[in-house]
Design a protein that fits this description.
Helix content: 25-40%
Bound molecules: flavin-adenine dinucleotide
Low-confidence stretches: none
Strand content: 25-35%
Structural class: alpha/beta
Order of helices and strands: EHEEHHEHEHEEHEEEEEHEEEEHEEEHH
Number of strands: 19
Largest sheet: 8 strands, mixed
Mean pLDDT: 97
Shape: globular
Length: 383
């Protein structure tokens, strides 16, 4: 089949975000071309992600995006026609100081008001859930049983296959090299093999989003930040019920992975870069912090580690939707560590902006304009 020369929408990037957007547009009848410079979809940040899916955020907009995504992940087979590998093992937040506990008390009220079934647990109740959990320093915990872990590969390929069934074309191994803009509106996307004319372009380029935006004359505050994760060999005490644990004291998170444990931590001192090397000193620090919360990890044998890139904004929240003064350019960027879990909802959000002129979820707090207005959105639960 010859390469398409025009489309209603060109999506730049086939990670979980671009694939989800392409599916929701195509199922509603739009002609869609997705440009992905790698030979496969989902090998960018998506392919390096921990797969965590949680609704326990401190801002309503993040809760609503995750809640809508959880509903899609629960019904992935019916809605998308694929298995999402969604294991609702729950997220357990461990809270070790009074101020954080007070903040989570307010969040529990928010979650109740939005019908998210998260609840407070005493430290003893948390230890009943995770035998061996160190609780001596804990003030309390929260647990949401409908949070969990999904498979980034299955979810992304599920969206790709479903989008294709609705006629979307994925041009794999074909990079976008520019965006053609004239008189304040988008006219198409440039590639080495020629231009694809389109009145609408979706920037779904993950950590490379700022570069893509610059082609269209847009300053997008999205920076790449290395994030590392490490796994252990299988451990006999890791049961099917082992939840995702987030230790708010150290920032360490961990979940079940191939019979062992995966541990990760956002290094607050990491400078922006495209570096994805492993730092073994950092690995040792992450494991030592993880052992403080789950002492049995002391005996664990190291298995593997990898690093990927967060696409981070100044307030650690996504940038979604149109750009004022530039017709036809849509942002689906800057997810700052929670893009995978929100990807099922983002497809509908961006398709709504393009096809209906508005999002089905009010994401006005996540517009690019918030940076010009200096109205950053404070999200307390950034991991
Ligand atoms: C270690 C780690 C752990 C994480 N854990 C979680 C987690 O537990 N839960 C969660 O929700 N999120 C997590 N994240 C974040 C999550 O992975 C990202 O937010 C999400 O994958 C972003 O998806 P994306 O599609 O926007 O980006 P990507 O997956 O990076 O996709 C962007 C695509 O655009 C392509 N591209 C770029 N430029 C061009 C161009 N010029 N032309 C064509 N194609 C281009 C790239 O090749 C890439 O495939 C984690 C991230 C990391 C690194």
């Amino acid at each position: 089949m010859s390469a398409p020369r025009s489309a209603d929408v060109v999506v730049i990037g086939a990670g979980c975000i671009g694939a989800s957007v392409a599916f929701r547009l195509a199922e509603r009848g739009a002609s869609v071309v997705v440009l992905e410079r790698e030979p496969m979809a989902g090998t960018g940040s998506t392919g390096h992600c921990a797969g965590g899916v949680r609704q326990q955020f401190s801002t309503a907009v993040n809760v609503l995006l995750s809640k809508a995504s959880v509903i899609t992940l629960e019904n992935f087979q019916d809605e998308v026609g694929a298995d999402a590998g969604f294991d609702q093992c729950g997220y357990l937040f461990c809270l070790a100081d009074e101020a954080t506990w007070q903040s989570f008390q307010k969040q529990l009220a928010l979650w109740r008001s939005l019908d998210v079934p998260a609840r407070a647990l005493t430290p003893d109740e948390a230890r009943a859930l995770v035998p061996g959990l160190e609780i001596g320093d804990l003030v309390g915990c929260t647990f949401c049983p409908t949070d969990g872990i999904a498979d980034p590969h299955l979810v992304t390929q599920g969206f790709v296959a479903a989008a294709r069934r609705h006629g979307a074309v994925f041009e794999l191994g074909r990079a976008a090299t520019g965006v053609r803009v004239e008189k304040g509106r988008v006219l198409g996307v440039l590639t080495a093999a020629g231009e694809i004319a389109a009145p609408t372009v979706v920037n779904a380029a993950g950590p490379y989003a700022a570069e893509v935006a610059r082609w269209a004359g847009v300053e997008l505050p999205v920076a790449p930040l290395r994030r590392q994760m490490f796994t252990t060999q299988p451990l006999p005490w890791v049961t099917d019920k082992f939840p995702m644990i987030v230790d708010m004291k150290s920032g360490v998170y961990m979940h079940r992975e191939s019979g062992g444990i995966l541990v990760g931590l956002a290094d607050k001192n990491e400078p922006p870069s495209f570096n994805t090397n492993i730092d073994f000193e950092f690995r040792d620090l992450v494991f030592s912090l993880a052992v403080e919360r789950v002492p049995a990890l002391e005996e664990a044998e190291y298995r593997a580690g990898w690093a990927g890139l967060y696409e981070t904004t100044p307030d650690h929240n996504a940038i979604l939707g149109p750009v004022p003064g530039l017709e036809g350019f849509q942002c689906a960027n800057g997810f700052s560590g929670h893009g995978f879990m929100q990807s099922p909802a983002i497809g509908r959000v961006i398709a709504g902006f393009i096809l209906d002129g508005r999002s089905p979820i009010d994401v006005s707090e996540l517009s690019l304009e918030r940076f010009q207005r200096h109205e950053l959105l404070v999200e307390a639960n950034v991991i």
